[in-house]
Amino acid sequence: MAIRSLLITNHLRNNSYCCKLQFEARNLVQFLLPISKPSMKLKYIHDNSSSSSRLETEILRLKSPSRALQNWANNGNKVKLSQLNVISKQLLKSRRYKQALEILQWMENQNDFRLTPGHHALMMELIVKVNGLNRAGEYFERISGSASKKSASLPLLHGYVKERDIVKAESFMIKLSSSGLLVTPHPYNEMMKLYMALSLYEKVPLVIAEMKRNKLCRNVLSYNLWMGAFGEVFEVAKAEMVYMEMVSDESVEVGWSTLASLANVYIKAGFVDKALLVLKDAEMKLSSNGRLGYFFLITLYSSLKNKEGVLRLWEASKAAGGRIPCADYMCVISCLVKAGDLVAAERVFAEWETNCSRYDIRVSNVLLGAYVRNGLMKKAESFHLHTVERGGCPNYKTWEILMEGWVKSQKMDKAIDAMRKAFSVLKLERCDWRPSHSILMAIAEHFEKHGNFEDANHYIKAVHGLGVATLPLYKLFLRMSLNAQRPACHVLKMMEKDRIELDDETSALAAFNS
Known about the structure:
The protein is built from 29 helices and no strands. The longest helix has 18 residues, at 15-32. Helix 16 (272-284) runs antiparallel to helix 17 (292-303) and helix 17 (292-303) packs parallel to helix 19 (326-338). It is mainly α and 514 residues long. Helix content is 71%, strand content 0%.
């Protein structure tokens, strides 16, 4: 959460104050623990050597911060804003958003505390996350003071943009404009993101025009979005004009992200030579302080099937130092596959496998998918066994990839076994799995061909539970029910719940089965 650091920064300027502050916070945190453990409380208050890891562990056990805080205050203990900021930061780190919101709301209700605009912005972010946009909108109306309203407006607008609620977002922008709260490029950037997400590219230049009328400077993101909108409709000349305007704007600096945006415009328009020239310039703007830019450019090089560029930037990215995260390995392996260099992708995977401390199956899934898509099923099966032997734990995506390969190679028994394993994994993992319609139908047709009614019955229930059952799938099972002379009332109920519109054939089958 971008705004949360505002609560902490001004209180952690030097080490001596930081140590004192953390010890004071530990005493308060201990009081916030369940009251049923007084011995722990007394020991903890007097134990100056308690580590910060223990502090974080105990913070994660908070149940009702507001009630405990009030009890602490009622007992004559002083509560400092700095203490609450430290505790809030720990709660946010551990994603205890509801408890962090409780602390801020308790602070708001105390006469001794005066919330800063940063607090209001964080409060808005948490309300959006915990209570939803309607409650967040109500809270915004209650905020007094233009500085606090301005700070809180961006998280609320971002919430509307994230939900792609164009009506509320545009209405909110009108309200902000009439209140004189549109004084930075950030709200306008949010609206441009929304229009890009909704493919309303023609509206992006209108936002820029409004910024110019209001004499607001554009920042780097403003120019990148503006350029990208022209790129989406292949208006290369206009995108180049935006770039030239940015170059002449002394308030912004052209960096790798802008050059990457321009290169992307050229790639979409098929101007390969221009794209390569711009990407070379972008490489010169990269910093060894972070890897983010390297992987943006790696992705663009892969779009051009330029494996040399991918490998060059991959090696250059290592100069940033530190541990290379799994996501970076996944990105470069995927890009090498896309660029058509499966051998290089295997080398990068071997490098990851040598250095990894924990076997992340998502990394091997990238290479497994490449084998399957290229029709290398024997290699895929052997690789799958290898990953399991190395300690990899297959997830639903692993089984989906193998399922796809076995269906294509007509090894339906293996595909069905993979499907069962995927369903069993889903019981343990919280995820939104949406297997392809063609794979789902292939397995259903196999059941129909072999008259396997019981397995088909379990299958249709599982697919319905995923929310991906379709009319052809239900129709197939109704045919099976009719042929097996078995009732299908439960299937008709599932179809009604899924709001499946019946065609004539399905209506006839339903009539026979009802």
